[in-house]
Each structure stands twice: as C-alpha cells, then as structure tokens.
Amino acid sequence: MHISNKCSIAVHCLVFLSEYGEREKVTSELLSCSTGCNPVTIRNILSALKKDEIITVKPGTGGAALALPPEKIEAIDKMIGIHGSPSPFCPVGRNIGNVLGKTYDTLKNNLIASMKTITLEQILSDYHAVLAEEKNKKS
C-alpha cells in the first residue's frame, strides 16, 4: 500500500497554475493533460484547493488561478484522515476512529510542522532549477 498521490497531483496543479495561470485559461482538462490524471480527479483536487482558499475557480469553463502568491502557499495538511463511513454495526468499524484518532493526530501534527517549512515558492525554485539543468544538457 502507498500514500495517496493526491498531494503530488495538487502540487503539480499549483506549479502549473503559477507558471501558466496568468497567461492561459487553466481548466481541469488542461491540468488533466499535464498530470496524466482523469479530469474528475483534477476537479476534486481543485475543489479542495478552492475550499482551502489556495486557488480561485471561475464557474463553468472559466479556469483556475492562484488565490495567494506562491510564498504564502504552504503544503497541504489534509493527507491523513480516517475513512468516512465505517459500519456502526461492526465493533472495529464502530471504534476505529477512536483507536486511530490519537495516532493520526500525532502524525498529522508532525507532518504539518514539517510541511510548514515548505512553500510553493520553494517548489517553484526547484522546478526552475530543473528546467535550467535540462536546458543546459540540451545545449
């Protein structure tokens, strides 16, 4: 089992929005092409980013844009959670939230503390360094 890739897809979308959002109308279909993900997955991720006020999304096919400058955007902190509808009729299902709550709170607090040191601005800097390296190799 692996950790969900939604975080890296969200960061991919944020980098794309930072690079192209002011020049082009960035839609879920365009982000789908860039990420290789289904447009529905992209729309769900954009919806979560909008809810967290990280991006703005115009209704219809209006496109998405960053709501904050890159240096103000911290990595997403909602990666750890308990599944939403375990069976209340099963002893495990009925109690798993309480069992995992403390452990997940500890993990989440540690993860959030680490992630707060990373901004989109830093990720964009790394992205531009990789682009420059790629360009130098082609020269």
Helical fraction: 55-70%
- The whole-number mean of residue pLDDT values reads 85
Count of alpha and pi helical runs: 5
Coarse shape: globular
Q: What is the radius of gyration?
A: 18 Å
Order of helices and strands: HHHEEHH
Find the structural class using helix and strand composition.
mainly alpha
Number-wise, the strands total: 2
**How would a textbook summarize the main sheet?**
2 strands, antiparallel
Q: Strand order, main sheet: write it out.
A: 1-2
The stretches of 5 or more residues where confidence is low (pLDDT under 50) are none
End-to-end gap: 41 Å
What is the beta-strand fraction? 5-15%
Task: Tell me what the structure shows.
This protein has 139 residues and is mostly helical. Helix content is 58%, strand content 6%. The chain is built from five helices and two strands; from the N terminus they run H-H-H-E-E-H-H. It has helices at residues 6-20, 28-35, 39-51, 91-115, 120-138; strands at residues 55-58, 63-66. A two-stranded antiparallel sheet has the order 1-2. The longest helix has 25 residues, at 91-115. The chain is globular, with a radius of gyration of 18 Å. The chain starts with 5 loop residues before the first helix and ends with a helix.
